[in-house]
Amino acid sequence: MHTRSHDVKESSTHPEVRDMKHGYSAGDSSETLPGGRERGPREHFEEICADDNYEVASHHMNVRGDYTVVFRHKYGGKDQTFPNISREKIESCPSRIKSRILEK
Question: Where do the record's region annotations for Disordered lie (predicted)?
């Protein structure tokens, strides 16, 4: 069973559905970081890499030489897709993620 909340944006009549089971969804830029920069996909990628409840569902190398990585939560929820992740970024991930993506 999934817990959902509906947040109605002021400029829209359609509710935004968020998956509250895991606390955040990739691409949500609702938090401002020090220096005024908004939280974006880069921070979500780092959080998901560090979270043992996420595993790599699939990945592939793009034409430009970077990767698209899809994470799946062990207990359900939406898959989290991150396009255009550099090899350097993947090499800085925990070994369980790095070995899965960079295996030959």
Answer: 1-42
